[in-house]
Specification:
This is DUF5689 domain-containing protein. By secondary structure, the chain is mainly β. The protein is built from two helices and 33 strands. It has a six-stranded mixed beta sheet with strand order 3-2-9-8-5-6, with no helix packed on it. Strands 10, 11, 12, 13, 14 and 15 form a six-stranded antiparallel beta sheet that branches. Strands 16, 17, 18, 19, 20 and 21 form a six-stranded antiparallel beta sheet that branches.
């Protein structure tokens, strides 16, 4: 009997080993199997080599209700990245399909795989593991390229030579130069049809283009990864470009014109004048139809506008080569303006906000994942509250002082984890007051100043007869409190602690989107003036 049992025992063990090679029979108290295979995540394409999802068949006699997928990385805690709900069916076979979007925005350099936890119909569970390898293809590499070439301005072709290598293959090489504006590159030629070779010997005949000072060689691999190299061309390009002479070094806010001499060896096409009153440079006027004149006495009328700090003159010749001159305006502003700030509320339990917090010192917005590191620098946060079951809906998007969050701070989640505030942090006690048009002449003047772009000095005298802000929040909806909107209550007077001093601020609401069902997905766009 003993001799018979031993062979049977070995056969049984062999069958177990064979079965384990085909299916991932999982740890857990439930009965069932999870079929899987190894995946490769490509850092360059941000997807798997086999497609844009992970699939795995889960089989259990007691039915599959939920499947939880966790990202597993060496030296880091597991992170829940995907939940599949099959509770209505609780079928015995379930096909897990997790999109790559669930993990592609995480740092995956240390990924080892995905842990799959299946909750079964009898509340038992299966647990398994899907191996994932991380592919980090190197960029194309350059060798034997010169750092400088001596191009011939008269048009004799100059050879650009060197070797480009790629572990996975090269599909295209581009040649660019900065013909019109230094360090602004435009395409000269593209070399295609390279058939994904791993080593390519470039030998390109480059014909000099007027005013170019650099060549850029750009190599693109099969994953559309690009690497580039810059080659200098020591050419005196000033001989090609228009010259601006005798212009003032700076101008006063009372200036009425800007004048100077412009010359060009090839002849002028046009001259533009800009200023930066709206943050970026805005075209004010153009002198056209210069018909290739080589010497031009330029004079343009100019009227200063609040928030402008510089004037820019751009002279363009008949071959579209240009020269620009920036002239500072002699003004020191008493406040700073941050335009078109876009913020959103706290998000949802699964999708946290990336722009829920405003930093007054820099004008930047940060998200939930950065709250812990910026507890003492946050000027205010956006919070969505209320519900849509009332008539009218009580959903509101609120400006919140960091000192006024109460228990609401737990709703600011990063990767599903609530913000844990440090009780020792010195939170900013920002205060708010909504200004309603028509409430006083002072308030009406503030509305008029903002509409005209004439806000700068915001001292106590500017807010004469307006009570200092006292609210710890400013809601877009409330049954009794004053609320803001995008119309007659679109300006919020705030005071923000900066450097130990309460600084005045004006928030001009430009757009407001209150989500119909999920308050945490509401958003806002505004301009904000902050006293220096």
């Amino acid at each position: 009997m003993k001799k018979i049992l031993n062979p049977l025992l070995f056969c049984f063990l062999a069958l177990v080993i064979i079965a384990s090679c085909k299916k991932n029979e999982l740890i857990g108290d439930g009965e069932g199997t999870i079929e899987t295979k190894e995946y490769i995540f490509n850092r360059a394409t941000k997807t798997f080599e086999t497609g844009d999802k992970v699939t795995s068949n889960i089989s259990a006699a007691n039915g599959v209700k939920f499947v939880y997928t966790y990202l597993v990385r060496t030296g880091q805690p597991n992170v829940l990245v995907h939940v599949a709900d099959n509770s209505k069916l609780s079928s015995n076979n379930f096909e897990l399909s997790m999109p790559v979007d669930s993990i592609k925005n995480y740092n995956l350099t240390a990924i080892t795989g995905l842990k799959v936890l299946a909750k079964l119909g009898d509340n038992s569970s299966l647990e398994g593991f899907i191996p994932v390898k991380y592919l980090d293809p190197a960029l194309p590499q350059f060798s034997t390229f010169p750092s400088t070439i001596n191009a011939d301005p008269n048009g004799t072709p100059t050879a650009i030579t060197g070797t480009i290598k790629s572990e996975f293959g090269i599909k295209q090489v581009d040649i660019l130069d900065d013909q019109q504006t230094e360090n602004t590159y435009v395409l000269v030629n593209s070399i295609t049809g390279i058939t994904n070779v791993k080593e390519y010997a470039l030998n390109y005949a480059y014909t000099y283009r007027k005013a170019a000072q650099h060549i850029k060689v750009r190599a693109i691999d099969i994953y559309n990864q690009a690497n580039e190299i810059i080659i200098n061309m020591p050419v005196d390009v000033t001989i090609f470009k228009p010259k601006l002479q005798n212009f003032p070094a700076s101008v006063a806010t009372t200036a009425t014109s800007v004048a100077g001499l412009i010359t060009s060896v090839t002849g002028l096409k046009k001259v533009d004048i800009y200023d930066d009153r709206n943050g970026a440079y805005q075209l004010l006027s153009t002198v056209n139809n210069l018909n290739g004149v080589k010497t031009y006495n330029y004079s343009s009328s100019y009227t200063f506008k609040m928030r402008a700090s510089n004037i820019k003159i751009i002279a363009v010749d008949i071959e579209d080569v240009q020269t620009e001159l920036v002239i500072p305006i002699n003004i020191t502003y008493q406040s700073v303006l941050y335009r078109d700030i876009v913020m959103s509320a706290q998000g949802t339990s699964s999708t946290g906000s990336t722009n829920s917090m405003f930093i007054a010192e820099t004008g930047k917005v940060l998200g939930n994942c950065e709250l812990g590191a910026n507890e003492e620098t946050a000027a205010f946060l956006m919070y969505g509250g209320g519900n849509n079951t009332t008539t009218p809906s009580s959903i509101s998007l609120n400006f919140y002082s960091p000192t006024n969050l109460g228990t609401s701070f737990t709703n600011y989640r990063c990767n599903g984890v609530s913000w844990v505030r440090n009780p020792a942090s010195n939170f900013k006690a920002t205060r708010f007051r909504v200004l309603v048009k028509g409430a006083s002449t002072t308030i009406d003047k503030i509305y008029a100043d903002i509409d005209a772009g004439n806000v700068d000095v915001m001292d106590a005298a500017y807010f004469t007869s307006i009570s200092a802000p006292s609210g710890q929040s400013a809601p877009s909806y409330h049954a009794s409190s004053q609320v803001y909107n995008v119309g007659t209550a679109s300006i919020i007077y705030a005071q923000i602690p900066i450097g130990g001093v309460m600084k005045n601020a004006l928030i001009k609401v430009k757009e407001l989107t209150v989500h119909d069902t999920t308050a945490g997905l509401s958003s806002i766009k505004f301009d904000i003036y902050i006293q220096k």
